[in-house]
Amino acid sequence: MLRDPNLVPLSRQHQHALALCVRIERARDGDPLPWMEEMEQHFAQEIRFHFAAEEEVLFPRARRFAELAPLVDDLSAEHAVLREMFATAARRELSLEAVKEFGRQLAAHIRKEERQLFERLQELLPRGEMKEAGELLAKALEQAAVACTLPRPKP
């Protein structure tokens, strides 16, 4: 199913995170420090805003549907686990194997959101509510765009 345009910004961010997961998966044995630095940067610039947007905008709407409530509970719990992994990376306390496990968990989480939550929510949420959710998501994700902006040198 094509992604509803109102969910495309989240799906684009999912693609960014999946790219990180693929690079981690392909990493050879070595120093986990560069990966932890990249994880910290990715969380600070995009993922923290992404999680907040999902939790504040999408999850409450999805939870209204009995069939989606258990899925939302699972996804919320996964956000908590992933946040802790990001925090552990920021403290530089992950082994390379733990970094790779993080990549596997994040990839599985993203696939669950895309294949289960987004697909079903597109079918269940009335068009007007989906549009409203899209507007709220765009506003919530504005901060991520600002966080990713590189500072310009002063003239």
Description:
- With 155 residues, this protein is mostly helical.
- The chain has one domain (8-145): Four Helix Bundle (Hemerythrin (Met), subunit A) (Up-down Bundle), CATH 1.20.120.
- It is built from five helices and no strands.
- It has helices at residues 8-26, 33-63, 69-90, 96-124, 127-147.
- Helix 1 (8-26) packs antiparallel against helix 4, helix 2 packs parallel to helix 4 and helix 3 packs antiparallel against helix 4.
- The longest helix has 31 residues, at 33-63.
- It starts with 7 loop residues before the first helix and ends in an 8-residue tail after the last helix.
- Mean pLDDT is 92; it is low at 147-151.
Number of strands: 0
Radius of gyration: 16 Å
* Overall pLDDT: 92
Number of helical stretches of at least 4 residues: 5
Keywords, separated by commas or semicolons:
5 helices; mainly alpha; 0% strand; 155 residues
Task: Give a topology summary.
Elements: H1 8-26, H2 33-63, H3 69-90, H4 96-124, H5 127-147
Helix pairs in contact: 1-2, 1-4, 2-3, 2-4, 2-5, 3-4
